[in-house]
Specification:
Length: about 100
C-alpha cells in the first residue's frame, strides 16, 4: 500500500490522534487498554475504547503506527518516517 502525504495530514488533523502519538512517543509498545488509561488520566480524553481503536486504525493506515500481537495483547508502536518525509519535502531555506 502506498501512503500519501495527504493520509499523514489527515491522521494528524485530529487532536486525539496527536495525543495518541504523544503517548507512544513517551512510551512505545502500548496496548489499547494502556493507551486508553493514559489518555484519560493524563489528558482527560473520555473516548470509548472503540473510538481509540478507530483512531489507531487511521494512524496505521497513514503509516504512523504499527501493531503486533504479543499473546492475546496487541501492542502499538510509533513510526516517525512519514513525518521525516514531510519535513524533508520542504526544506527550510529555498534552493537558489
Amino acid at each position: 500500500m502506498v501512503i500519501g502525504v495527504g493520509d499523514v495530514y489527515q491522521a494528524l488533523a485530529d487532536p486525539t490522534r496527536r495525543l495518541i502519538l504523544d503517548e507512544l512517543t513517551e512510551r512505545d509498545g502500548q496496548s489499547l487498554f494502556e493507551l486508553c488509561s493514559r489518555l484519560v488520566m493524563r489528558h482527560g480524553v473520555t473516548s470509548s475504547r472503540q473510538a481509540i481503536s478507530q483512531h489507531l486504525a487511521v494512524l496505521e493506515d497513514a503509516g504512523l503506527v504499527s501493531s503486533r500481537r504479543f499473546g492475546r495483547t496487541k501492542l502499538h508502536h510509533l513510526h516517525t518516517e512519514p513525518l521525516r518525509e514531510i519535513a524533508e519535502r520542504w526544506p527550510a531555506e529555498p534552493k537558489e
